[in-house]
Amino acid sequence: MSGESETYEPLPWERPTAASLAQPHIVLAWSLDEPDRVGECIAVDGPRALGRGAALADDPAPRATPQRMRPGHNQPMPPIGNARIGRIQLLLAPVGSERISVTSLGRALVRINGAPLEQAAIARAGDVIEIHNAATYLVTLRPKRLPALRNGAFPDFEFGGADPFGMIGESEAAWRLRDALQLASTTDRHVLLLGDSGTGKELAARAIHGLSGRRDRSLVCRNAATLPEGIVDAELFGNMRGYPSSGMPERPGLFGEADGGTLFLDEIGELSERMQAHLLRVLDAGGEYQRLGESKPRRSSFRLIAATNRASDALKHDLLARFTHRVELPTLSERRDDLALPVAAQLRRIASAHPALANRFFERRTGQVAEPRLAPHVIARLLRHELQHNVRELERLLWLAIGSAPADYIGLTPALEAELDDAEQAVAQPAPEIDRLTLLRALSEHDRSPTRMAQALGLKNRYVLIRLLKKHGLSASEPNPGGDA
After folding, report:
1. For residue 465, what are the contacts with CB-CB under 8 A and spacing of at least 6?
2. Between β-strands 303-308 and 262-266, what pairing exists: parallel, antiparallel or unpaired?
3. CB 296 within 8 A of CB 386
């Protein structure tokens, strides 16, 4: 042996594809005049002039083309029509593979992460570009084209709106999640959903059920933490009348109710180890169980979707082994691209339930409630805030903004400002240098869990890890058999 390191051609699953390699984009997070265009993005793959209207002869660079990205397809959109944006507002250009230069050419004040842009600056993924009183953009890394869904077509729905199961999002992470749920729906194997509080685990469960062959049968939902102490067995497995005490009504049990359909058991990690052990037999093939007080076993043809906000290893190992499919739900901080979409959805729900608030804070078009009067600066600050409790925290902050609003618009009040931190340093600092082989090992060693991987690699948070994975064409959400993460 010469002692020199050998070189070899990477195998297919070691080669990132063109579709999976991330490049800088800016995503429209809010537009005062065009709120229906939130979620559209612009690829900064060369010098691009951002401004209102069609291209001009004296443009300093080719016009930025907004597009709506869906898996396998980019739909070009009309030019920006926001009258508050100048004919030539910004000049954008890539700087390396993860940063862009931003030059202000219009009259409107431009801020990056809240700091006024005097002339030009460098922006990174996670940075917020705000055109004063006009629009807010988020710098992000995306592939040139979102990979096509591998597990079947997803039901169609309006861009930026809720899908048929109530999930909202157009980001790469949102579509990876839908693809993973589609895969889980194609089998009858039990599923474990892993995600922080407020990430939408029940919506994910409804999507799996609604996409599956059981969609026409019952979906039984229960939070394990609410099962009454002392009669957990009766709640789960059922009991005959008068057992274990006289006067006890007959119960079919959750497994009996879900026969032929799906049982969603939220917060399964709240069950004691003793109760977790009681689930093992019914989760095996055949679904055999016994009602309390009965000697003859029953069978239930159910499919269990369980959820927990704990780490998967918090469950008993033999219970965990029963879950063939495990899907980790991303936090809102991991898909900031989507943040304004649930903001708009939450505000619409508030308007629907409270007509007085709708009259005060919403525009009307042809007699119908239209877009909220929402200052772009609110979205800019929310994008820089680290949401600890996801949708639940977002809803609380919106109610705070509404409750402290001095006029007929939702703005950045002192009360709201006091609740917001500044996540700029958490999301915008350059990611550490970690090579692709180290990331591949971490994916294998930590069961593709972003939380555990980030901790093991010494990263500040999961968002930094997601950026590193994108840089190398990898994903924590699903296997990477062809490099097309």
Report:
1. 450, 453, 454, 457, 459, 476
2. parallel
3. no
Establish if 7 belongs to a structural domain: no
111 forms beta bridges with: 116, 130
The CATH number assigned to the domain holding 388 equals 1.10.8
With beta carbons less than 8 A apart as the criterion, state whether 344 and 372 touch: yes
Q: What is the pLDDT of residues 40-94, one digit of tens each?
A: 999 999 999 999 999 999 999 999 999 999 999 999 999 999 999 999 999 999 9
Residues 317 and 410 in one domain: no
**CA gap 167, 206 in Å, rounded:** 10
For residues 175 and 157, is the Cβ–Cβ distance under 8 A?
Answer: no
Where are the strands (E) in 37-186, listed by range? 41-43, 48-50, 67-70, 73-76, 90-95, 99-104, 110-112, 115-116, 120-124, 128-131, 135-143
- C-beta neighbour count of 402 within 10 angstroms: 18
Q: Which domain holds residue 454?
A: 431-471
- Based on the domain organization, do 305 and 401 belong to the same domain? no
Q: Which residues contact 46 (CB under 8 A, 6 or more apart)?
A: 61, 62, 93, 94
Give the C-alpha separation, 475 to 17, whole Å.
Answer: 13
Q: Which residue among 426, 458, 479 closes a domain?
A: 426
Q: Residue 35: is its pLDDT beyond 80? A: yes
Position of tokens 């990690």?
A: 269
Are residues 363 and 273 part of one domain?
A: no
Q: Could you write out the three-class secondary structure of 59-95?
A: CCCCECCCEEEECCEEEECCCECCCCCCCCCEEEEEE
Quick check: 463 and 333 in contact, CB under 8 A? yes
Decide if 16 is inside a domain: no
Q: What is the CB-side half-sphere exposure of residue 22 using CA atoms within 13 A? A: 25
CA geometry: angle 8, 10, 14, nearest 5 deg: 150
Q: Are residues 195 and 314 in the same domain?
A: yes
- 437 and 310 within one domain: no
What is the C-alpha separation between 24 and 64, in angstroms, rounded?
A: 13
User: Same domain for 298 and 205?
Assistant: yes
H or E element at residue 203:
helix 201-211
Q: Report the C-alpha gap between 471 and 124 in whole angstroms.
A: 13
Q: Are strands 288-289 and 120-124 parallel, antiparallel or unpaired?
A: unpaired
β strands within 253-314, DSSP E: 262-266, 288-289, 298-299, 303-308
Dist. CA 147–CA 19, nearest whole Å: 6
In this structure, the answer to whether residues 103 and 238 fall within a common structural domain is no
Given a cut of 60, whether residue 423 has pLDDT beyond it is no
CA distance 177 to 476: 11
Instruction: Answer yes or no: are the C-beta atoms of 101 and 60 closer than 8 Å.
Output: no
Q: Are residues 373 and 459 in the same domain?
A: no
Tell me the pLDDT of the chain averaged across its residues: 89
pLDDT in tens, 341-374: 999 999 999 999 999 999 999 998 888 888 899 9
pLDDT confidence band for 229 (50 / 70 / 90): confident
